[in-house]
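dumping these here so i dont lose them again. two proteins, back to back, each one seq then structure tokens. dont judge the mess
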Amino acid sequence: MELTELERQRLEKLQRLRARGIEPYPHRVKRTHTIAEAIAAFETAEAAGEEGPRVAVTGRLRSMRVMGKVTFAHIEDGSGSIQLFLRINDVGEEAYEIFKRDFDLGDFVGAEGSLMRTRTGEISVRVEQVRMLAKAISPLPVIKEKEMDGKRVRYTVFSDIEERYRQRYADLACNPDVRQVFRVRASAIKALRRFLDEHGFLEVETPILQPIYGGAAARPFVTYHHQLHRELYLRISDELYLKRLLVGMYDRVYEIGHDFRNEGVSHKHNPEFTQLEFYAAYWDYHDVMAFCEQMIAYVAEEVLGSPVIHYQGHEIDLRPPWRRVTLRDVALEVTGIDYLQYPTAEELAAAMQVKGLPVKPGATWGYLIDKGLLGTVEPTLIQPTFVMDYPRDISPLAKTKPDDPTHVERFEYFIGGLEMGNAFTELNDPLDQEQRFLEMKRLYAPDDEEAHPMDEDYLRAMKYGMPPNGGFGLGVDRLVMLLTDRPTIREVILFPQLRAKD
């Protein structure tokens, strides 16, 4: 490994410790309390008029202030921070000198002693023994402070913002607010599971490696299985396998897992992402809407304590009922184009070009509506909104509206200017489904990412009888963006995909 001057100095300290018979990476660690538990134990004893208990605590060394024969230091673990009070008379001259000379900020240390309050009132460990637990050869990035909302806030300076993501371990080690983002993420996923479990859904696992990809319009990642001598795809959606389970007599199923789409990276896209999908027999898309708005409000209440959140300067009220509007009406409202007045792709493309809207050459009518018109509308949908009734030619898995053969019973929902997910009254007629797959083959070139391949096994499952059902997808990463007020998906994925460094 190439080392900087600071790293070489730290390595020398490591070697000095070993020369003295001190292992800088010991096999065993003594810990009786987390720091939060130690503080709570002291406060309980103090309230009862008792002396502070004896503890063994561990953590990363955050600060050192040497004052002759006394040193004040702070260590931090996952639960909090506590001061260490070291005196040469308590720990011994040799141990005290080793601590001063060979311990660095960032090292993991263990400290054993009794809890006390210093004259300034700070709860501290009166250290009797101090031990190196893991020597940090590389110093952590520089930590600075700034004033925000009347408080002193610590933050880490990286010369390149992407280094925060490339070195997430250092980012987490330095920034408590970043660690909190991923605690919120974990809490949100737990709350989603709890809500679904309490409403009779069964959590299942479906294949990630699939012989035929489907359930969404996206380009897949392709791999090869050498023993089976066949190409396989990383799934782009869980949908077709989850609906097979409805055929198998499960009424309500869900999965929270990773999906993969070989598409661009942006503030709201990562090639590997977390999605919740559920399917409920005997529901339609109106039932799914009602359930969705209840679930999202519940998650916010459970995680943040309120269904009213703040995202990128907007106060957003997640309480039901949410606004419901058709795609046709909201597109007309925002763009001034009533797409039903332009029944062919050519006519609609011409109208969009007049308005200066993006047009993909050779795109279908439905694609122009979805990507061109709705893409323009999306940033305006700040408060929770269900956009309903989508063109049939971009929705091969949804039931056609009974009174309108050109549209299907599908909705997407938007919060904070972000599309959060997609849902249908699911198509359960195998003959109609087969025709939809054939139509997609005619409409799209084989390499078009909007194409949906024919899945013969899925059709075979449908022929055994699939109950009427409603299906739903939620981008979990985007939900966490909302709950943590983060503008980019990279902030809520621990290790996002990044371009290779030059």
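---- next one ----
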Amino acid sequence: MNKESQTQQDENRLIRQRKEKALKFQQDGIAIYPNTFRKQDDIKPIVEKYKDLPAEELENLDKSFVVAGRIMALRSFGRVTFFHIQDHSGKIQVYAQRDLLGKEFYNQVFKKFDIGDIVGVKGTLFKTQTGELTIKADKVELVTKSLRPLPEKYHGLKDVELRYRQRYVDLIVNPRSREIFIKRSQIVRFIRNFLDQRGFLEVETPMMQPIPGGATAKPFITHHNALDMQLYLRIAPELYLKRLLVGGFERVYEINRNFRNEGISTQHNPEFTMLEFYMAYADFKMLMELTEELFSKLALEVCGSMKIPYGEHEIDLTPPWNKLSFYESLEKIGNLKPEEYQNYETAKELVKKLGEKVIEGEKLGKVQAKLFDLLVEPKLIQPHFIYHYPTDISPLSRRNEQDPTITDRFELFIAGREMANAFSELNDPFDQKERFLEQVKEKEAGDEEAHFMDEDYIRALEYGMPPAGGEGIGIDRLVMLLTNSPSIREVILFPLLRPETPSS
């Protein structure tokens, strides 16, 4: 029998034993899933308030505490037992004594509790000889019986996929996972407050759309039975948010779920979270300043510093950040000469030499973007704004006034990956329609990520959209950065995984 089979057999045996205990409890009239215990205190505030109090003062403290949590460790010494319980806020040791709990309860019930069981405890505080703050229990109740053993601290969490697949177990036994998702919540809350204080209105736009738009991506397709119509899960909320600018809302944002039918990697999950915001009477340069302010203040709030570790690097988010035009980045960081990236055939051959495909009929801007992805992006460790992207790859961006072959657009790169995409919005319905038509041609030529024609959006622009700047920021990647997480799966509670393989 191999080691994996032996482990599975041992686990099955433990589950069987726990189920037998649960059945015996029920036969003896002991509820294994009651809803009668009422917790009164969180563990962390107790520890923080009383951990530094001398033992003598604790003994004179005329106060009982009522806590609840999961048993994480348990050591029995006959008539006394020490165990640790953990709630959402922290962990504390509990001292259970046979004479305090009652001999019959202690021997027949309490001694049959397992690691993983959720219990309620009432008692007073004292310190052990080693100085550990401990609750002396005068009452212990079973709140929820656990039928499965928790993974061993050092052996049961090596399977990374198991951590993502059974996130509920990961959160129980892995403090870092809990910290990441608490910090994620803090990040989103900070962003909301930041935008609210600047006069932005939070809105909600459709997640099922008759025409997907706002990004270059392959959508998921679904069907509405009652209307007998094909719908798409949104790839971005952009075109709906800009309709709101037409309607008179001058500053709007949405923290939204997007869906893109693309590959899965350490940086991509088909379902992900984006912040998108739009600001009338602003341009892409104003958004650069706003983005620097948001990221630097967020890092200070969440991490305590604008200099944060990420992998082997220290990222400095202190403004101002580096700024390079798209073509400057190809030259200064990609080490390309203008004749190498400006000539279509030369650029195409260089992309192929670097191992990337070029689709027949792709425009020069798309080929240049592939050169950027291969030669520039991985080197952008410190914050860099790359601006003035080719019009070919920016179908919703406003053309630059001096050079219509480029757009007033920037992307933000940190730690070798894109963190934000922003531009001065295209509000010319004639230009927008022409660009949509170009996208339709590319889609017909085989580009599954090209934009659809959206006649209603053109109609909205014909009513008049004020000049504006808009930006999208990937929340998942931002959380990765601020929690020093190498994979997007670390920061999404339930990432998409392949179907589970049945155990033999």
